[in-house]
Amino acid sequence: MINLIFMNISVVIICKNGSARIAETLASVQGIGKEILLYDSGSTDNSVQIAKSFGASIAYGEWEGYGRNRYKASQLAKYDWILMLDTDEVLDEELKEAILSIDLAKEHLVYNMRYKNFFGTKEMKFGEWGNDAHIRMANRKKVQIDQEIVHEKLFLQPGLRIKTLDGYIKHYTADNSINYARKAMEYASLSADKYLKQGRHASVIKIYIAPLFSFVQNYFFKMGFRDGRKGFVCAGMTAWYTFMKYTRLKELEKQSLINNPAVKKTVRNMQHEIKLTAT
Q: What is the pLDDT of residue 193?
């Protein structure tokens, strides 16, 4: 049984319509930090009301992407030590005990947490979702979130050391294949926007070969087939996400080219020359 210690930690959760699991998330962090901060971006369900019932403080802001919102939420937190979670992530008891044993005076440490990813009620032990882990707790004075709209990274200052804690975050990624497909499409669109800003390009290989390689890698090399039918669905969905990501990037590239002032000027000049020739 865990005693309620309430360390100088801010549990920070970004949210938009997360009512499906947020109660479990909030229940799992009770007794850890002196602050629970929910950063909400226009929820139309009862996520905020649920959070308030667990004693969370609420901050509001527009949805600007995962990285940007995590950064803004962490800057609003009361304490420098941040435990960052999503509304579909639940700490197990072993991980909670491990967090409560942390010496917060050791600011040179950042904490990596292992994941158990679920597709519906099934834990996915292989494929892309197997052997998953992310840094979820650090002192904000020592790290920086890169503020990308999706798949953001944590930049560590020199001299920091990563420590993996015992226990797991139970991540309820998708309840069913339809919700999973919606999430994959959202991530594909966001990733395409990100790649365009980075100057990356969608080649024929990226559009047609990368999805095939993704499926083979996750289903065969990472043994996704051992997760049964859902392992096949996950590998297929990741391949589809890869295809849609680069297909959308190709569309954005064409749109960007058409809207380029220099290109527009060239087209106008060509049209003018054609008219002069015709007359």
A: 94
